[in-house]
């Protein structure tokens, strides 16, 4: 049984020793490539491709300024706690970039004296018949972000999973919590049908299933980490 505990501010993200505030527009950063709807402002997520050196990107202890703190959804299963970022932290970062840094399957990090394993959520390896409905195999994205496998977790509404994207998606209560609009998050699995494909989730809806190539750095695809701790 996984219980949804609520939200928590913890840690920060620094670039070249400068603390970065979480993006206030955590979606696609270049609307010339793809624009969800007319009148949308471009996203303001940091872009890894502009400085593709992991030595310059660091998860830090919680900064004193609340506006610089990262926001997490907290889940608990027995003595294991899972914290899932409420938005992407970086875009234009490939799955291979994340794997090179250890962030796909698990890298040890310390935040405020607590040790965590920082990794990607699992996302399934094949879509349902309708990609808006998630993956065919049980996975953490559908269970936690989609709320299907956690007690008291926020659940999306049917209108969150319809096309095309509109301001209603951006302003939906579930998106306000999870920031899936216009943002495709890498997950850990390869896709079953493509050796160079990796599963991404989000953008068109909270449970939308998408595939991209392992080494692509796109303006709408990025890093949404999970922290795992044994308490």
Explain what the structure shows.
This protein has one domain (3-230). It is 10% helix and 30% strand. It has four helices and 14 strands. The radius of gyration is 16 Å and the shape is globular.
Short description:
By secondary structure, the chain is mostly beta strands. The chain has helices at about 95-100, 140-145, 165-170, 175-180, and strands at about 5-10, 10-15, 20, 55-60, 70-75, 80-85, 90, 105-110, 115-120, 185-190, 195-200, 210-215, 220-225, 225-230. The chain has one domain (about 5-230).
* Beta-strand fraction estimate: 25-35%
Backbone CA Rg: 16 Å
- Helix fraction, binned, reads under 10%
Structural class of the secondary structure composition?
mainly beta
Tally of extended strands? Answer: 14
Can you list the strand order of the major beta sheet?
A: 1-5-6-14-9-8
Low-confidence runs: none
The dominant shape is globular
- For the record, give the distance between the C-alpha atoms at the N and C termini, rounded to a whole number: 16 Å
Q: From N to C, what is the helix and strand string?
A: EEEEEEEHEEHHHEEEEE
- Give the biggest beta sheet: 6 strands, antiparallel
Mean pLDDT: 97
Number of helices: 4
The total domain count is 1
